[in-house]
Design goal:
Structural class: alpha+beta
Largest sheet: 6 strands, antiparallel
Shape: globular
Distance between the termini: 48 Å
Strand content: 5-15%
Number of strands: 20
Amino acid sequence: MVMARGTMWIRVTIAIAVGAIIGAVALNVWTQGFRYRGLAEERWDPRKAESSYAGSVSCRECHERFYKLWAPSHHGRAMQPVTAAFVKESLPPLAEPITIGASQFSVDLDQQQVIEEKDGKRTAYPMLHAMGGKNVFFFLTPLDRGRLQVLPLSYDVRREEWFDTTGSMVRHFSEEPDSAIDWRDPLLTFNTACYNCHVSQLDKNYDASTNTYHTTWREPGINCEACHGPGEEHNRVCREVPKGTVPRDIKTVRWGDFTRQQTNDACAPCHAKMRQITPTFMPGDRFFDHHDLVCLEDRDFYPDGRDLGENYTQTAWLMNPCAQSGMLDCIDCHTSSGRFRQEEAPSTSCLPCHAQRVRKPETHSHHPNGPQTPTCVSCHLPMTEFSRMKRSDHSFRPPCPEASIRFKSPNACVLCHTDKTNDWAAAKVKAWHPTSHWREKILLEGALVDAARKRDWGRLPEMIAHIRSSSSESVVVTSLVRLLASCPRPEKWAAIRQCIKHASPLVRGAAAGALADDLQTPGSAEELLQALHDDVRLVRVRSVVALARYPREAIAPEHLVALKKAEEEALASFSAQPDAWHSHYNRGNYRSARGDQKAALAAYKQAIALRSDIVQPYVNASVISSQLGDLSASVSFLRKAHQAAPEHGAVNFNLGLALAEKGDKKGAEKHLRLAVKVEDTRAQAAYNLAVLVAGRDENEAIRLCRIAAKSDPGNARYAYTLAFYLAGRFPTEATGILEALIARHRSYADAWILLGRCYETTGNGKAASQHYLAMEKEPALPAEVRKLAGTRLTAVPKGQ
């Protein structure tokens, strides 16, 4: 979001796509999407039923076998109380304290406490609850204001050792180092960050006025009613019929009635790296009516889509060709308790579709048949580890060691052959499969995502072609659309507009969000207005937010009802997580775009109250304060942001502009020079800094204008300003810049005028006359400018 300030100052604010958690943002075949077919008859809806929850024990009366399978499962024990019995069964003592920063942590299992010793002070934190257990036990302790926090020590079940919780979560990015967060960070607060998938029927009970929680839940773990809806009415109707008979309407959510898509969607919320739109998802609902999905724009994925950080499963699952075929869902391979059905013979999970390869694995795998022969799972679901938790790649794609060489991503070959290299594996795979569609596909997708992340727009034509292609993965298309938010080149828009009609709501939602920056194009606005009628809530919400700045009087009557509904959905989405800073930040962005600056400022202040270390709300609050005429408050917000992030480009850029407006040129220059060092703000900062210093150092102004024009070559203002400063001393160079600028922007009146003066200054009367003749006839120019051309034409000396 860019805001103009006067005629020469540009002020940048940071905007996160609505619903995003952190960072900037903003698949499958086009014919393969998420169109849902209805059931044969109306299904019982737990939201409309007068029923309440009865608890899992009530299910045992009729479903003893299932209960016994569920109770000890990782679903049933997703969270459990820490008791003496649990400690005795599951936790050994910690031999030596673990040092984290300036603190030493130990475990007192008798008292069920983690002990911190720092600067001679001893603090005990009760271990109330244990989450997980398949790979790791994380422990929760009560902190102030009702928060339940993940403790700094966790237990590795497989290695049988205690470890530093947040130290294990450091991602090994290739571009820049990551670092461990403090264990008290809100990202590790159970009430807001991880409750959805570890307890059942939770009431957050968050009080925004006091920033406190009074959180309760019916049962720890994922209980029967989490997947089947409230059970009291089901129990009643079943008890009322004769024994051995089944009621016509059993008043429960029956997974046997689900389509495969509904089954996959029912599992997705707990197995997706997603952004919440509503907190009301129920099994049977559509995933994209309640959530958006993080894709490869996030650095927790390698560019080729393999897992680097924690991504859960859903994004890779959408890249899975078996899932795309409509012939596979989660419970084909997993029980409702989460167990792998084919644990004893994993390759049988690929029957009957791949019978020939399962029966003769040596032909396909190029490994001898025998006890050590890799299974289908070995190669197509390779297991990697992050934060001591093992996870399988559910994209089912074949190994591609060449991608590992290019993108540093993992591959199944060297995960198994640990003594071999990626080069060795790549040579083997290429020898076995000299021409491989999959290898070409994975390498191309990874290369385009990698280039887009690095803002290498030399590959923009390939990105556009990939976005347009009917054979491109919806996840990759979505990723590219979101990454193109930082691309200044206008040729991207036609492809993005095409995406708003994509079969996948994931792609449509991403395209709608992107088109917020192209509202000046009538085609984009019209596509967004049509998208207000989309069948999927995600697309409607993204569309109405994108239209926030669009004048309401320009909207045709046939869209007004859909607009009102979509706006209500968008506003509700901002309240889906009232204890998350980004919810208030996004509400502020929307209110600001709608012109309600006071409401926007209040929302930004609420975001700051929740996370005083996040810079985005400070920056936008500063802009709003300036618009409301309170320059002192504007500077104050920016100084606080600078304390939180001293090298942040947008913070220094905006602070530089604000100080310049206050007359503090020295302070303004200091912060603008810091902003020039950051790629995101380099062009704007260099341009404004050039204007600031031009009066005392024209050479420096020219140097800075060159930086701005090179950093954003499509920006007409930067090119013009460079030519303006060059014109007095280097008119020939200025002439070349202006000629190219006018060729691209026929309506840029100042460029026409300055070019004429350059011709005259260099004594090129013939060129000046031809220029003024063309200028006089140029329909894109205002009448007064064409009239000026006629005046200058008569003034050009005839002898030149």
